[in-house]
Amino acid sequence: MARKSAQTCDPAVEQEFERGKAYEQEQAHEKAFACFSAAARGGHAGAEFCLAVCCEQGRGTERDLSQAVTHYRRAAWRGNAAAQYALGQCYADGRGIGRDEKSAYEWFRLSAENGLAAAQHRVGVCCLYGIGTEKNFQAAAQWFRAAAEQGDHLARCDLGSCYFSGRGVEKNERKAYACFRAAAMRGCAEAMNNLGYCFRFGRGVKKNEKKAFGCFRAAARRGCAGAQYNLGLCYASGSGVAQNEEQALEWLRRAAQAGSEGAQSLLARSNGQERLP
Q1: Is the pLDDT of residue 252 over 50?
Q2: Are residues 100 and 41 in the same domain?
Q3: How far is CA 77 from the centre of its chain?
C-alpha cells in the first residue's frame, strides 16, 4: 500500500484546488466540484479526496457511493491519510463496495501510521475486539494512547477502560479515573458515565455518590444509554439523590429504548407495572 509522502503539485493545480475550497465556503458546490475535478486530474490528492466527499454527499454532483470509493482509493494511494481512513470506513460499512473487515483494517492501519488520530483510535478498537485482525490488547492500548496524545477524547476514554480492566496495560484504577475525567471534560458522554461509576463505587477515586449522580445525569442527558440506566438505578435506590421511583422508571425506559439490556431486563421483570420489582 502507498505510504505517506510529500505531495508536490504544479502551482496551477494547487491554485485550482484552493479555488474549489473557496467555492465550497460560498456553497457554490457545482463550481467547487469542477475545480476539484480539474485539480484531481493534475494529481492533487486533496482534490481527489474532496471529489469523493462530493460524490458521497451529493454536493455539486449526483450522489454516487461507488464513484466516491473510486476517488477515495485514488487519494489513498497518493498518501492522503483522510482518504485512507474514509476508504476503510467504506469497507467496514459496505458503502459503495462490498463489506470487508480485513481490507477496512488495513486502510485504517495505514492511515493510523500516517498520523490520523481517528484512524489510530479505530485501529485500537479493531485490535481490542479482533475486527479484521487478531485480538491484541497491548496493541489496542498503544493505539488508544497514540490517538489520545493527539487529543482524541474517545481514545482517551478507551485507554481509561484498558487501565480499569488491565487489558493491554497494567491495571491502574487511578490512571483509569484520570483518563475518564480528561475525556469527560472534552464532552465524551461514555467517559462521563464511567467517571460516575468510579465515584459510585470508589474506584480510583474517593467514593462520592452525589458526584456519581451528577456524572450519570450529565451523560444521560447526552443520550448515553448506560448512564440513563445508572441514573435510573440512582433514583430507584436513593443513591446520591432523593429516592424517586417515577424518575427511576422514566430513565430506565429511556435507557431501554436506547438499547440498554440491563434496563430492558429490569423493566421486563416489573411485568408492565408502574413499580420496579
Answers
A1: yes
A2: yes
A3: 24
